[in-house]
Design goal:
alpha/beta; Rossmann fold; 7-stranded parallel sheet; 11 helices; 11 strands; about 15% strand; globular
Amino acid sequence: MRVVLPGGSGQVGAILARWFRRKGDDVVVLSRDPKSAEWRTVQWDAQSLGPWVAEIDGADVVINLAGRSVNCRYTPDNRESIKQSRVQSTRVIGKAIATARKPPGVWLQSSTATIYAHRYDAPNDEATGILGGAEVDAPDTWRFSIDVARSWEEAADETELPMTRVVKLRSAMTMSPDPGGVFDTLLALVRRGLGGKSGDGRQYVSWIHEFDFLRAVDWIIEHEQLSGAVNLGAPNPLPNADFMRGLRRAWGTRIGLPASRWMLEIGAIFLKTETELILKSRRVVPGKLLQEGFRFEYPKWQEAAEELCKRWREGRVGNAA
């Protein structure tokens, strides 16, 4: 099977490329800045059709991950770059598939669990979840993130692709022990005694273990009845205070200094990021996956955190087994 990963040079792209390569698939990563890797890398600009479209023609699966990181301050220039990098790359992938003589059978398009509303009362699944943007007193940065997510998905729906199934992956945070990933960042706080609750700790954290993320991607590829928006997250999101407590327990420490909202706001300025990534409640559950019979190896955070801490200590950052 040939798998093409536009924008696959980041952490999640590396996780996917390792996984498919390990299974013996032909993996191609499209990158603005190709580097030597175990798989083929091909240059593209993520904006216009070019020689790279030959990789799409005849591919079995396309998984588009392209888009500038949201881990930055939401200045006007950064906002424009974040949104356009997602919309433009998605549109050009759609054009490449539409013009292919042998289009891929499935296009998995990145989206995000952030598209759902900030809420505590009930989880968001694909059928009954509330899309965000209309919350009372929601900060402007939160509304921006939701606008980006909606525009991202709309760009994937613009092109008629009768031969290709389109799935929009509303992904939660993918937890792996890779250096620089979200788990590595959170664990660094715990190791320094700073891994307490953020703000009031009530906001829900949606997450998924690396192994379940990869198995779910395979499941979606294999099950042709799945299309449209699909939530990729463990079935048991939990409040931030409980999430961090579980990570501390898995690491073997009891102490974790909390960070109040004003402390987080000041820290975000110095770290050149936004508190939206920490304070917004993301209570998202994988309704479609569960309905279709997918079974999670790590449905609960405590067991997932213990496995990830074990591999982090051992320095093993390859795909979970």
